[in-house]
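lol ok so funny story. i was supposed to be doing the assay writeup but got distracted and ended up predicting the structure for this chain instead. priorities right. anyway since i did it might as well share w the group, maybe its usefull for someone
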Amino acid sequence: MAPIYRIGLSKSEISQNALEKSGLKFSVVRPREKIVSLAEKFLGVPYKFGSSVLNDSPNSFDCSSFTAYLYVEAGIAIPRICNDQYKFGVDAYEADAKPGDIAFFKSSRTDIGPDVVGHEGLYIGNGEIIHAGGFSMGYGKVVKEKIIESKYYQTGFMGYKRLILDESERFVIEIPEDRIDLRNKDSLIKAINDILDK
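and the output, tada:
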């Protein structure tokens, strides 16, 4: 089965009426709720370093492809790599951390310098994360655990980042395999509006 390419649009970017007339498949989601509920469904899925969001997911994940995949499914595009996600997000302090934020950990490697992100997990509340843990730390799959009990916690907890800045409902639109021209958000909006204007 071909992978499904998805793009998220806010209700301020496109109307539901226009989407319905376009004939494209879409769903309406609350991003934070979608991300957290979806994460639970992947417990036990195998770990694969460098796993592709488009081609390998949801059959395998590494830590950052797991969170990137969940966010795409909720209509939010975020960077694919740990360090980029860390820089992309805004600080969320422990007292303010919400389910759907991302917890980051330092790398266990000493040859790449201090304070380099080595791992991440989706925060689900109550001090717990769901994450795709690597074989080197004894996981090899997606697991749920307390942050302070994670083997990654020993390498250094870097804190939480918030990548969901708009809590409102979003449209998640499936882009047909033969419509590569619609894989750009602006092109997609224009194409949908052109249909509505006819």
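Strands lie at 5-10, 26-29, 90-92, 102-106, 117-125, 128-133, 141-146, 157-162, 170-175. The chain has a mean pLDDT of 93.
back to the writeup now i swear
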